[in-house]
Amino acid sequence: MTVTIYHNPACGTSRNTLAMIRASGVEPTVIEYLKTPPTREQLQEIIKKTDGNIRALIREKGTPYAELGLDDMNLSENALLDAMLKHPILINRPIVITKKGVKLCRPSEVVLEILDNPNIGTFTKEDGEVVQAQKS
Q1: Catalytic pick from 5, 6, 7, 11?
Q2: Which of 15, 86, 110, 135 has the fewest CB atoms within 10 Å, i.e. is most exposed?
Q3: Coil, strand, or helix at residue 128?
Q4: What's phi and psi for 81, nearest 5 deg?
Q5: Residue 124 belongs to domain with CATH number
Q6: Residue 103: which domain range?
Q7: What angle do CA 11, 85, 61 make, to 5 degrees?
Q8: Using one digit for the tens of pLDDT, what is the confidence trace for 100-114?
């Protein structure tokens, strides 16, 4: 199975998601999106394949969201895309792409819904929270 993760190594949720993917037996393609942001076309495809709601993929916390006025509900999708491409930190993470789907993996265990082998047993997140994966 080919798995791609748009990853930020400074994010605990992203690190936990990557660890869960690896625990499933897959070594994913890791894209550190702050260093290598998606293209406009890639980002549009991700938005389309999640739920089509661009705002669901915009991160507010720790970003220039407020300073850029992105809370204005009258902004077009193109204006939001422009902001995300200019400031990749606005792209919420981690985003995982598999043949089963595309998900924003918040919380990290959402990734189990789109892995071929979601039975990773008991997984302990960095913060000590224990996730018990369901057998498929």
Answers
A1: 11
A2: 135
A3: coil
A4: -60, -45
A5: 3.40.30.10
A6: 4-132
A7: 40
A8: 999 999 999 999 999
